[in-house]
Amino acid sequence: MMGWLPVTLLAVPLFGALLLLVAPAALRPALPLYGQAVSGLALVLAVVMVAAFDYGRTATPQYTVDLPWIPGLGLRFHLGVDGISLPLVALTALLTFLCFAYLGWGRGRGPGRLMRTRPRALVFTLLVLEVGMVGTFLALDLLLFFVFFEIVLIPMYFLIAVWGGKGRRGAATKFILYTLLGSVVMLVGLLFIWSQTDTLDIVALARAHGAGMSRGAQIVAFATVGLGLAVKTPMWPLHTWLPDAHTEAPTAGSVLLAGVLLKMGTYGFARIAIPVLPEGAVAAAPWLGALAVVGIVYGALACLAQRDLKRMIAYSSVGHMGFVLLGFATLTTVGVNGALFANVAHGLITGLLFFLAGSIKDRYGTADMPSLGGGMLATLPHLGAVLTFASIASLGLPGLAGFWGEMLALLGAFRPGDGLPRGLFLTYMVIGGLGAVLTAAYFLVMLSRVTHGRPSRPRPVLVGAGATAGAPGGPGESTALAAEAQAGDADALMGGQGGLTGNPGGPEGAFGGPVGGLGGPEGAFGGPAGGPDVPVGAWDVPEGGSGGAAGGSGGLEGRPGGLEGPGGEVGALGGGRGRPAVTGGFGGDEAGAGGGPPRDIRPYELVAWVPLIVLILLFGLWPGLLLSLTTPAVQTLLGALS
Amino acid sequence: MTTFPLIAVLLPFVAAAAGLLLSRARRPSRRTASIGQAGEPDDRGAHRRAAWFAVLPTAASAVLAIALAWAPGFAYLADAAPGRPVGHTYGTIVTGGIPISLTLQADDLSAVLGVLVTLVALAVQVYSVGYLHDDPRYPSYSAFVSLFTSAMLLVVYAGDLLVLYVGWEIMGLCSYLLIGHWWEERANSRAAVKAFLVTRLGDVGFLFGLFTLGVAAGSFRVSDVLSRVPEMSTATLVTATMLLLAGVAGKSAQVPLHTWLPDAMAGPTPISALIHAATMVAAGIFIVARLFPAFLAARPTLDVLAVMAALGMLGAALAALAQDDLKRVLAYSTISQLAYMAGGLAAGSAKAAIFHLLTHGAFKALLFLCAGVVIHHIGSNLMSRMGGLRRSLPVTFAAMTVGFAALMGLPPASGFFSKDAVLAAMDGALAGGGLTDAAALLLYGCALATVAVTGAYATRAWLRTFFGESRAVVALPEPEPGTAHVIDVREGPPTMLVPVALLAVPALLLGFAGSVHVDLGVAAVGVALAVLGAGVVYAVWRSAPLADPARLLGPLRVPCERAFYVDTVYAAVFARPVLAMARLVVRTDDVVVDGAVRGSGQAARGLSGLLRLAQNGNVQLYVSGLLAGLLLIAVGAVMFT
Question: Which of A43, A86, A571, B439 is deepest in the core (most CB within 10 A)?
């Protein structure tokens, strides 16, 4: 019945990606639109899935497809959706679409946008990523689950390694090696389950509730599968790939990493580890709970001393995922419900936070909190307000989505499932509660540092605008300068490649100039279109290779312009500090049509954020929407345990 | 009628949403309205819109709340039999365990509280129109006040403990946002963070207390919980109520979680009146009264509450005596008066406590609003800059005199009756009640001492503000945020004076609303003590009108001014260790946890480096190795066969 839906949901992004390989030239000018269209179509399918879902029987998989895949091995192409996976599928489709909207709404030009670096590859990567993510939540076959679980790693690796920040190489390598290692352990566990039960069908395995496996076997299987999932979740102390990956990943990568990829780990617990291996779960739950609460407090403390905004949000994920794991560890309907709720809420809230962090980084050229200097509510009031909203949602304020999951996880720990030590879980509950206070502490301290206080300069100017301000000084140089500064780290990468292949950087600048002129409405651009300037461009190439990757790209690349002319110097000053000084602002005013004042929230940001804000409010005010969906499914999956 | 509680909650909520989203919509650009330079035509329009959004829904809610309280005839204060709650359950949220029922209802207690909340909120909203008329952020300010009103009404009308908790926390958020209203100043921002964190610490305990009660009762509905109190074990009840006390101490600024309230005065004065005097801080008292049967069944908790209240009321009153900042005087006074209510609860009389809560809500809101007028006029919070204001601010002077009289408990002001009721309850507890003798004695002794100190600090503030020489030189050219922005030479604008005048009426007369029975003996002692305290201060002040009468504290003065160094101790014991731990965690994470990861990577590379030595492309080496292996195998074969 309607089995075409999950298949189409996978096929749309897959064929969308393949089409890019087949007809690259035809699609090139329409790439931003193309990405949005394909992911939008997937979103529509997901919405259809949500709408046509039979809410009377959320515990059984719906829209099932069950086809033989590799008959010799007994592998089946078995897809389906139930109350646990439905919210995650919808979340994935939504976040992917929002990432495309964020990257490509309007023309998709500007710092951190789609058209900056290798747009076609970016669209391709994100679409393949979507296939893997959606597939993981749809799969009902152990090996199929594993295949999708692994597919995700490769596009994410490239996302970090190609479009990331200055430390992207190391972060990407760490990410892929660490998670691959975890996956291998998980694969061993999955194969072990197979060897014990002779089936890979998750539905059948879950229905059996561990029948056919001895307690010892279940514990071994739970430990191996759980370890693999814990790396992905991430559980303390297996989390250190996460801050690096998040800090270096581009905005879309961070959003999907936090919003969806982490969920794949926790989803694995709900889909495989707990229902298939109940006795193993009972044996491992106290350990899982202990590591979870350590993660909560540890993550919160790590956030408290963090300087970098993105890194802080990354560590906050460790804490929030601690609540999710604590919920699972209680092995109660309430706790697991809480975990699943917290899962979705974290996807929405942290997704929004990473969008915000990305926007801040694009505007100021840095996410280092002391350098941001405070007063954002004065300089960029709407952005500051949304940041406040997201932080408050993340610290678990009742009435917003973040609260219910954490509350239910703690309530689960108050009275854990049968066979679990109650005193121990009460301790976990208390520690978790204190962790919630610490969570509030670091978010409020961050808000105090970033949004409160007097702005350290009278008027902020965007990185791009500051550099553009150099335009009147010397037409030629500063245009190239503007273009380069606009280009940010992404183009710098191209510059670096240009240097390697011997291409002069000049054309880059010549290309960037008019682009800047066109981009005027976007707010960040506006350098008058100028002629090509080979010398400066050539200057820029080596800078671009090293400096562009250095995050505060505008400044580093602006420097050569400063050598050339007075106007350029203004721009260089502006960009050079990563966040332009007053002089840059003056220059912008003189330029008239140029740089202009900072734009607060821009249209593409609004498009990407409003759905998240609405959903955070909706689930916060009416948690029953999600809980009524998951409750029967959770009762079924816990089976004898609940 | 059954939908009134819901509508009363929703109206301000919708107003808050509308105020946040719509009142700025037509403003072309925020950047032109940079800080301090405001009052443009756009701003005016936005302000007017926001003011309507703020005032009208609150007024409508007030009408509904009054209707709800009118029907049973303010039954909580009268000695009537408890009536049936008016309300409705709007659905249930399944959680997999105990469900959450979305019940909003008004019983006798909530109905009375609802009136207090909406009326004070209305007065404050109207007052704020004048007080913040040139503040560029007035729209968001008024929206947050509306949100707060909605949250407080949710607390008051909630029929389910977890629904109540939602409102409870949102109040905390609004408090945070409004204390930090003038966030340009780092100190204000810090005060806001402190307020949120300290109350949140208490709230975690509170939530666990709710868990304990709810799980023991098998339901989070207030009525179910209360009906099952007799079946619960004493251990459960003591645990639950002790945990609830943590939340009460946090929200109601009781020892040991009281330190946030004086700092919270960094917010605009109307906020201090609404949130930090009349309503939110009273929520802790309210919740104890709401779950009073559970507390009465847990004797040890009442003893703890009595000791907390005793320490809090006297300590805070002494601290109030030594402050120079008028708002901080009132803040410490609030802590002290809230401790009175807590003492009344501990003594076993929820009715006396709630009665004092109501009168206190009226007269403390009045005092704060008057203080706002004074601060608006002078441009400073400091009493050392005030003096002789009774001539230039006659209305305010009269109103504030009523407020101080009520605070001191002088007849016929409202505070006299309610304070008498509380003292009588404590007197009764001494004779035999739920408390142990020592706790009852400590409570009653401290309460009487506090009456005297209250008389002293109220008189001091009154004299130093309105009498003596006028010290109001032309105020600072650019007043700091946290003070009023404009120095007016006349009385405040009508939007400020009308609420003040209207609040003066209940502050004076609310005492007659309850069923008045004055315990003459206790009342005489109370009034005598208050007059004694006032007299001593007056005598000291007469001898040197320019000097601060706080000098009569002698060597105690500095400790009192610093509130007995509790803040310093907390900073040393909690704040700094946590920060040190945070730094330690970051270092550990880098060196140990990630170090292990990096180490394993390096180890793998090292090992591969070793292996690589063998794979160096040198064919001679390969062949030698092959031959050596062959040789070994041959030797082995020969030897072992």
Answer: A571
